[in-house]
Amino acid sequence: MLRLIAGRAGGLVARRATVALTTGSSARMASHGHDGAAVPPEVAETMDMSRPMYWDRLDIPLPEKLYKDELTDADKSLKQKEKGPWSQLTNEEKIALYRLMFRQTYPEMKQPRSEWKTVLGGIFIFVGFTGLVVWWQRVYVYPPRPRTFDDEWRAKQLQRMLDMRVNPIEGLSAKWDYEKGQWK
Amino acid sequence: MHLPKPVMRGLLGKRLRFHLPVAFTLSLVAAIAFKYAVTEPRKQAYADFYKQYDAVKEFNAMKEAGVFESVRPSGE
């Protein structure tokens, strides 16, 4: 998620100096440091993507490695205790062990975010800009209108098609009443 | 925390046992519906058209309208 916004923000900054979108996301580009969580590469030091990484994802229940790499002594003793029967662990210890292994719980991951507003806003901005480009093209680039688009020409064209009996069974001429000279 | 062990095998087979008959039935229904909604009326439309079709009359009408290059309207 952070990478998506960072990528979009980077792309936008490269093409147009829009401030509105970057100010929203810059507050969230804080680095997570060395604990191996997903970090935008242009903010922190470059990550070695060939090593196992930690990812909070709904469809990856057990990421490639534990969340916390560097265990303090208290953590290490807790891990030792984990090797014994789990009924001897208190609830706080179980939660602490969970937090060692994972950064977010599933409910935390599923929390609704406002990213869609950024995306939708970006879409509208670019569609609007494209509209301006197309308008400019209409004025400065398009050739003169072909004469086949005139109403008079089109009427003569339709009359010729009816005279030729185009699609007389199920199509155009089938819908024209030749005796009365009008549409059926 | 005694949860029952989830089903680990035969998942694809179970899905196919349900979905394949459904798929075949729906395809058959779609084909039959197309036949009786599209092809049969179309065949009837063509039959009706050609029952009352006078080729010479149509030719003369087209000739008078001036669409041919090899034979011009009788006026010219």
TrEMBL record, chain B:
UniProt entry tagged with the keyword Nucleus: no
Q: Which Pfam family is one of this chain's hits?
A: COX6C
Spans through the membrane: 20-38
Localization: Mitochondrion inner membrane
The membrane topology noted for this protein in its Swiss-Prot or TrEMBL record is:
Single-pass membrane protein
Q: Which GO terms describe its cellular component?
A: mitochondrial inner membrane; respiratory chain complex IV
Pathway recorded for this protein: Energy metabolism; oxidative phosphorylation
Q: Which residues form a coiled coil?
A: none
The alphabetized UniProt keywords are: Membrane, Mitochondrion, Mitochondrion inner membrane, Transmembrane, Transmembrane helix
Question: Could you tell me the Gene Ontology terms of the biological process aspect for this record?
Answer: mitochondrial electron transport, cytochrome c to oxygen
Query: What quaternary arrangement does the UniProt entry report?
Result: Component of the cytochrome c oxidase (complex IV, CIV), a multisubunit enzyme composed of 14 subunits. The complex is composed of a catalytic core of 3 subunits MT-CO1, MT-CO2 and MT-CO3, encoded in the mitochondrial DNA, and 11 supernumerary subunits COX4I, COX5A, COX5B, COX6A, COX6B, COX6C, COX7A, COX7B, COX7C, COX8 and NDUFA4, which are encoded in the nuclear genome.
Family stated for the protein in its record: Belongs to the cytochrome c oxidase subunit 6c family.
Task performed by this protein: Component of the cytochrome c oxidase, the last enzyme in the mitochondrial electron transport chain which drives oxidative phosphorylation. The respiratory chain contains 3 multisubunit complexes succinate dehydrogenase (complex II, CII), ubiquinol-cytochrome c oxidoreductase (cytochrome b-c1 complex, complex III, CIII) and cytochrome c oxidase (complex IV, CIV), that cooperate to transfer electrons derived from NADH and succinate to molecular oxygen, creating an electrochemical gradient over the inner membrane that drives transmembrane transport and the ATP synthase.
Spell out the protein name for this chain: Cytochrome c oxidase subunit 6C
Originating organism: Cyclopterus lumpus (Lumpsucker)
**Gene symbol?**
LOC117731504
